[in-house]
């Protein structure tokens, strides 16, 4: 064999080895999701968006407490903003590399459950002998619990007291009073708008926050009795007519069609709008950015003549477990800890939300007085979160948002728009 | 190379030919079904049209503004220190990341923002406009932002090209009686032609991939007025979990980019 042939063979072998190493390295990199065991200790991964939204170091301290109480279990926190966590969880679900425990939004649950990527918590609770009567709520798909709400955030109406006073109106309690108040604010010469709705398509949750809560507050629903879509019913039609009237009257803040939730809060904080529907989680942010702002939280106005109980829209920091976790017992222990009276009370107080453990009474002694007002609104009504657990919930909102934008910007007939939404939703359910 | 390039591309093509890939544990081969599906989708048509307008308007403006500013920085009519200030100002947009650009322009184009204030106070418009939220203005607004953040790359490249043109050529033209306009079209443009073609092809490829700017300013809305192929593909994958249809859409973008990349490579070879 001459040297040229040997050299050629050696080159080929080297190339094959390098390629093989590359594949192995890539496979190792891709397959690194989930927990691990080192020196007898089990490390579980917990991906969530909660840590960045809490005061610095507080969530890590809570997790340290868990680690101290559960020797042999280490928790690796994977934290990031909500939007990036969502994409990472979807990617993890697709590739089978989900973290052991993960923060969940109710809008994702049905999709992850049907993909088989989140575990059946009913089974986990049963295996651990856990008494689930202490849980305020459980999100189920096909009869099995897939998500447990850890902290709940109510969405009352925020009112700028100074702007209403300047306009010479009282806090509205009905739709017609609300329209008059919004119009009075616009006419008062303050330069502010009456109401703001964030209907941007980047994250179409404005439908869930700014539009449909008006339906729910008046005892309405977007679903049929069997849980199917009924979005073209009288309740939702009346809501869209109400919003459209305000839009045409020019009392809704401009720019809403591409506005995101944070833009809406900023508009309110900077006194460019008098009223908005928003999460209690934003109270601290508003206080921080505009300490002088005089505002209240009040119940959302109801349809004229409605005297029944009001539905209060809420969102949750939910928790779930990967279906592929190698450490289901340890993962459940972490969930159990976060749902325990002590930890859950502490976490909900830090987050300014309402506890997911039904036995915990919120402690308002050190909170902003508005939280107590909000808790009273919460208790006077009933919690509603109709998108939670629905299939492709984000997409359902997007479909609604796109049609609503056509109603508002292009005067598309409301019946036609709601009919289109109903047809699209029926295809998704 | 095979692992980093061919494998992902091959996987995306393979995904596009299967049904419910990723979300379905046992996907089935469905051939070109997803391609036919997206070609029949009105949203895809809107995205394709918007992408064409966005890309062509952006690239044309990048070229014209980039060339104008490059000539300004290359002129002998301005003192050196003035040109240094201009160069610093002109190159600034290039130094900002797309996320910063998006946030900055959202503030500027806000109905209560600086842009409206300037236009109203100078009497150019009578009332503030919703630049990013008005269905008739949104595409124009995102094109404007993209032009702002993209022209410096053209400017720098063309400036380098201008500095490489021999002064003798202009002197000879002047002796022959050619004015500045004639010199521009007969010397400057022909001399810059290879750079202009290369830059234009590269910009066409890059701009057609623009996602972050659109996503962070309008999310593809209002309605579908700023929906590009990139945002359309993202929504299919991460909003509807239709990873196969998203893969088909991504393959369409890949084919368009490949045609442009082929033209670029061919042009580079011809130059060599």
Structure description:
The complex is a heterodimer of chains A (429) and B (272). Chain A is of the alpha/beta class and 429 residues long. Chain A folds into 2 domains: 36-153 and 315-370, Periplasmic binding protein-like II (D-Maltodextrin-Binding Protein, domain 2, 3-Layer(aba) Sandwich), CATH 3.40.190; 157-298 and 391-428, D-Maltodextrin-Binding Protein, domain 2, CATH 3.40.190. Chain A is 47% helix and 16% strand. Chain A contains 16 helices and 13 strands. In chain A, the strands form 2 sheets. In chain A, strands 1, 2, 3, 4, 5, 6, 11, 12 and 13 form a 9-stranded mixed beta sheet that branches. A 4-stranded mixed beta sheet of chain A has the order 8-9-7-10. In chain A, a hairpin with a 2-residue loop joins strand 1 and strand 2. The N and C termini of chain A lie far apart (69 Å). The model of chain A is unreliable at 1-33 (pLDDT under 50). By secondary structure, chain B is mainly α. The chains are: A alpha/beta (429), B mainly alpha (272). The A-B interface holds A 19, 22-23, 26, 86-87, 90, 94-95, 111, 114-116, 200-203, 253-259, 263, 272, 392, 394-395, 398, 401-402, 405-406, 409-410 and B 2-3, 22-23, 25, 106, 110-112, 128, 130, 132-135, 138, 215-224, 235, 238-241, 243.
CATH superfamily of chain B: MetI-like
Shape of chain A: globular
Q: Which architecture of chain B does the CATH hierarchy give at level 2? A: Orthogonal Bundle
Terminal Cα separation of chain B, in Å? 25 Å
**Unreliable residue runs of chain B:** none
Quaternary class: heterodimer
